[in-house]
Amino acid sequence: MNPPKCDDLDYIHFLIASQKVFTCTEAARCQPEGKAPAHDAFTRLLQRQLPDTEALWQEAKELVDRKQGLLVVDDTTLDKLYARKMELVTYHWSGKHRQVV
Questions:
Q1: At the top level of its lineage, which domain of life is listed (predicted)?
Q2: Among 6, 16, 21, 58, which is 20 to 30 Å from 73 by CA?
């Protein structure tokens, strides 16, 4: 059996850096050239990972002001194409609308 071509930190770094598209295909495309795994490597990574937030927290804790800030991890998509700016909500790519919402 071959060793995995990507690990949880590769995916976490992609999530932190990405602004719009959060897919395994995009994660593979954004990897450095000498290492670039196929998108299937990220799909397999996500399938074998247990739901654990510790690795994410280790990466993000330096960016969070623990006295005044908060870290919200939520995959909810608000289908509000024409909404005005909402606090704590960022724009992201919608596969349904094929544009940033």
A1: Bacteria
A2: 6
